């Protein structure tokens, strides 16, 4: 009976020692896996840092840098100050403009709606030609003019900022959008501005 008891205790002791050995082995494997994961992370981080500091940029990076330089070159030809339009009729009548939304020289301002309230209608004879001059040596790439009359609007075709007033007397509201774009990519705007003015045709 005593021998049996000793045998059982010895067996239990052996199995306990075996379990402890297993636990130690599992802990070693976990530690090894953790060290391997950390080493991989350190290696990948080092590679990312080194690739970011590569002294020889790739071909694509060179193209992007050249494109940015060209855009900056073109942009530097435009004045830093937002241009103010000079609007005049063919008989020399000056028409004031109210500034609208714009993006110029790295600054953008957004006006929620067209500002006609601050415009005082200027009396101009029917059918006269109106010219818009932005006062910049570089002509804009886009001039969009819209006329608002009788609660409806229509686009006016103009390539150089000139258009004809209607022959119908009354108050006519106008908005204009002018934009300069990159010579390399017409989708890149170097600067744009918009404004409104009111004419009372008589």
What assembly state would you assign to the polypeptide chains in this entry? Answer: single chain
Radius of gyration: 38 Å
N-C termini distance:
129 Å
Low-confidence stretches: 52-75
Q: How does the major sheet shape up? A: 7 strands, mixed
CATH class of the largest domain, named Mainly Beta
**Count of DSSP helices?**
2
Number of strands: 11
**From the 3D coordinates, which CATH architecture of the largest domain would you assign?**
Sandwich
Please give the domain count: 2
The CATH topology label of the largest domain is Immunoglobulin-like
Descriptive report:
- Helices cover 35% and strands 32% of the residues.
- The protein is of the alpha+beta class.
- It folds into 2 domains: 2-55; 81-201, Immunoglobulin-like, CATH 2.60.40.
- It starts with a helix and ends with a strand.
- Mean pLDDT is 77; it is low at 52-75.
Secondary structure elements and pairings:
Layout: H1 2-52, H2 59-77, E1 86-89, E2 94-95, E3 98-104, E4 107-109, E5 122-124, E6 129-133, E7 142-149, E8 152-156, E9 162-164, E10 170-181, E11 189-201
Parallel strand pairs: 5-11
Antiparallel strand pairs: 1-2, 1-6, 3-4, 3-11, 6-9, 7-8, 7-10, 10-11
Short overview:
The chain is an alpha+beta fold and 202 residues long.
């Amino acid at each position: 009976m005593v021998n049996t008891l000793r045998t059982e205790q010895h067996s239990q002791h052996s199995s306990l020692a075996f379990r402890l050995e297993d636990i130690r082995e599992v802990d070693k494997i976990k530690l090894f896996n953790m060290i391997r994961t950390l080493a991989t992370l350190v290696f990948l981080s080092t590679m990312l840092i080194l690739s970011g500091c590569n002294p020889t940029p790739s071909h694509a990076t060179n193209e992007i840098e050249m494109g940015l330089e060209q855009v900056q070159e073109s942009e530097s030809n435009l004045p830093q100050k937002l241009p103010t339009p000079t609007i005049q009729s063919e008989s020399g009548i000056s028409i004031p403009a109210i500034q609208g939304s714009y993006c110029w020289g790295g600054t953008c301002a957004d006006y929620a709606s067209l500002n006609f309230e601050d415009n005082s209608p200027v009396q101009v004879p029917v059918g006269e030609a109106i010219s818009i001059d932005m006062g910049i040596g570089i002509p804009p790439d886009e001039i969009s003019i819209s006329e608002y009359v009788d609660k409806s609007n229509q686009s006016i075709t103009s390539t150089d900022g000139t258009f004809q007033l209607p022959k119908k007397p009354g108050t006519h509201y106008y908005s204009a959008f002018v934009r300069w774009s990159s010579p390399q990519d017409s989708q890149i705007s170097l600067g744009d501005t918009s404004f409104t003015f009111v004419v009372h045709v008589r």
